[in-house]
Amino acid sequence: MFSNIRLRRPAWLRRRMLLGALVASMFPQPSFSIDMKDPFYGTGGISGSGGTNGTYVNSSGIIVSGSAPRYDHDPVTLQLMGWLIEGASTNMFIRSGDFSNAAWTKTGLTATLGENAPDNSSNGAVLEITDITTEPSVSQTRNNAVRTIVSCFIKAGGASPSTFATVKLATVATTNVEVLIAVNLADGTFDSSGTYHTVDVRQWRNGWWRVSLCVDAQAGQVSNTMHVRPGYLTGYTVGQTCLVWGGQCEETSSGFVSSATSYIPTTTATVNRTSDTLVAVNSGGVANDSSITLMAEFAIGTVSSGNIRAVLHLSDGTGINMTRIIVQTTGVSCVSVTSGGISQASINGAAMTLRQFTKVCARLMTNNMSMYENGALVGSDLAGTVPGVTNSLRLGTSSGGGNNPLNGWIREVKCYRSPIPEGAAKNITA
């Protein structure tokens, strides 16, 4: 007798269910989400390896030793930068943290340990010019025939602080080349002499500046020597002083970077830092066969040298089927989809700027692929197939580990098993 009775849900419950469905459609929930800026989500779910012999900047702005995952910070603002992900590199200079050591040649100046260094556990060397009959400097030489990146930390200090400190890279080749960079120790601006590939001057804590100088390989190149001294380019006087610490020489024949990577401390021998590898734990299956949404907030930390850099990489491990957010060889952000070894979409965004974060969302389904960046639609591709790949999601490198390194930071990642609404794509990148 009760077979035809239908129980009607209360009006308040129906309204709540409709509201819940509406909210779910407007604000879909990701299948995988980590936001390092939000303590509610935390930083779990990431498996890291590599980065051996690496360093990062802790929350107090101090350089400390650590391997992947390296939680890096801005050395001045102490802002959380995110996971620092870099390719392998070697510091070819020995005694990197002690310019008073005999490994560093002194000409026309003295080098004595002085003020606290950026690692808060050693001291920078005070350079004081004593003789100008020859060009004064503290220097170290590497025999090589490839593009070279030298870097060091400099600071005003000593008994008679110079307004400028000069870093010079001298190349012995068929035609010898010298490039000089004079850095204003008050504001980090610089003047130069000679042709360089890149220069980067980054502010550090307690008045330190990190200077990176890259010079291209020369015909018949035999060696490169980094020189550091107080004074402006070729102008210097007896008694001028400055501080120096953290010398580094990186050699790049393959060209992943054209500016210094994070500091690699050395003592009696050169030291290699291995590649960082980060994988999203239990992220297998974040993709459907025909649709997915990926989002990342990231920044580059080095100048590119014409290589693709991976941000988020989802593939079958063969390179035939890939869904990626990358930085193009031209230095622009990009959403890239490859299926069956054939490019299905390549949508380019804005040019990347050193240490400036961007948010990119790849909203992908068959014959409808879109890229959003910083709250706006960048472009779409309305023809193509999204490959169905379910391997774990890699952060900052491509499959295989260590390949196409970002050489920068990632601090937010979201994955959805379907293309989220356009408004949501704009919201999560705003």
Describe this structure as you would to a colleague.
- The protein has two domains: 180 residues, Sandwich (Jelly Rolls); 185 residues, Galactose-binding domain-like (Jelly Rolls, Sandwich), CATH 2.60.120.
- Helix content is 6%, strand content 46%.
- It has two helices and 31 strands.
- The strands form six sheets. Strands 1, 5, 6, 22, 27, 28, 29 and 31 form an eight-stranded antiparallel beta sheet that branches.
CATH topology of the largest domain: Jelly Rolls
CATH class designation of the largest domain: Mainly Beta
Compute the gyration radius: what is it?
Answer: 26 Å
CATH superfamily of the largest domain: Galactose-binding domain-like
Distance between the termini: 58 Å
Give the DSSP E fraction (strand runs of 2 or more residues).
over 45%
Q: How many domains is the backbone divided into?
A: 2
> Helix tally?
2
Mean pLDDT: 89
**Which spans of ≥5 residues are poorly predicted at pLDDT below 50?**
19-24
Tell me about the largest β-sheet.
8 strands, antiparallel
| Total beta-strand segments | 31
Helix content: under 10%
Question: What's the CATH architecture of the largest domain?
Answer: Sandwich
| Broad structural category | mainly beta
